[in-house]
Design a protein that fits this description.
By secondary structure, the chain is an all-beta fold. It has one domain (13-453): Methylamine Dehydrogenase, Chain H, CATH 2.130.10.10. The protein has strands spanning 6-8, 18-19, 27-32, 39-44, 56-59, 64-71, 80-88, 94-95, 98-103, 117-120, 126-130, 138-143, 152-158, 161-168, 172-179, 185-191, 196-198, 201-204, 211-216, 219-226, 237-244, 271-273, 281-289, 295-302, 314-321, 326-334, 342-345, 351-358, 369-375, 383-387, 395-400, 411-416, 426-429, 436-438, 447-448, 451-453. Strands 2-9-7-6-5 form a five-stranded antiparallel β-sheet, with no helix packed on it. The chain has a five-stranded antiparallel β-sheet with strand order 31-32-33-34-36, with no helix packed on it. It is globular. The protein starts with 5 loop residues before the first strand and ends with a strand.
Length: 454
Amino acid sequence: MILFATLTLCAVGTAEQRKEDGYRGIWYANQPSGDRYGWKYSGGMAVFCAKHLPMAVYSPRAHKTFFVYGGSPGSNSPDLLIMASYYDHKTGTVPRPTVVMQKNTDRDPGDAHHNPTLAVDEKGYIWVFAPSHGREDGFIFRSRTPYSIDSFEQVLQKEFSYPQPFYCSGMGFMLLFTKYSAGRELYVSTSSDGRTWSEDRKIVGFGGHYQVSWMWHSKRGTAFDWHPPGVGLNGRTNLYYMESLDYGKTWSNAAGKLLSIPLNSPNNDALVHDYKSEGLLVYVKDLNFDSEGRPIILYILSKGYESGPKNGLRIWTVAHWTGSSWDIHAVTTSDHNYDTGSLWVDADGTWRVIAPTDPGPQPWGCGGEVLIWKSTDEGKTWERERQITHNSRLNHNNCRRPVNAHEDFYTIWCDGNPFERSECRLYFSNRTGDKVFMLPERMTHNNEKPTRVE
């Protein structure tokens, strides 16, 4: 068995929190394209990106869905606000959101790669992970009071990008994250108390990778791509999957074959499908499990990294491990690589993808109109179940799945104009998608009800 050495990191001070008078998300753009489509990706990015997860957790004990997002400080500030809040299912209200930290992102103004993620421990403490973006300015905060967002203490500073923390009762935290050690490489660290962490252990590193992960009971799975040498992250391709049953000590593929960690070659037993040979790019979006704990990966296939129609429609795809092989099927199409949605699996075996797959008011830009796609045959066929947003002024994007999602707060997302700087508002909907709410941009009271969007 592989043992983890431990590394104790001392607290580095206490962040001073304040309240904002409403919910205003960050707008961000990355890699100018020099054409009418503006950037590789852009728009409202409050709950960007798919590789930051989870961003919402439902607590049955508190009967609240806690969530985090990247907020805008306004006044043309280059900073990003690490925001925390909750939806109170009993009262149907949200409080004024808390600024956990005002993070300096002047190297890349409003850099949404600093957006936070969160976990809730068995005692009800709220843990906020405020990541770095290739540097050592990553921070972990813990609420001073269980089930409260009013005050946080800073307990850690270290390097971690694209954080994916999960808390398991009796085990503690398991954090999957990225370090820019040689490209974007994947690491794991664990902690029983959130303060003393195991040393960072590299699990994947052969050129660069993006990952999405999830928990199923004590199983932690991760699905990831590969950034080939010479083309890098804009040439991301191939699809891989591996899982751990012992909190990251050992890893196997979906068939249970033990893997030699870290993976250091693109030709390995975690490979789900070779898309490089087909000339296709892979954009991982979500990972979930069926009732037997078999992984389901949601991703987009594309012919190129650039925005716009030159690369055609992008193909939303699911890969499902059947117990003996990977079953791969198309879900639908949309018009941008960074259209982002998630996959839900109901107890009755129904699969649903909630994502901005219809063109929005800014076609060929990030996002669009949000739909629910349903499958009752384990992803083989899909049907449009409902269109959630209609006649929008701005594109909607980044539909995220809460941990233990409550039917009244089933997904959270944001909007924004991908072609020019705009406001960014936050939304959520119920499970059926017939009730959509916008969080208040400006609040005059400490607690207010979100606005119903017709």
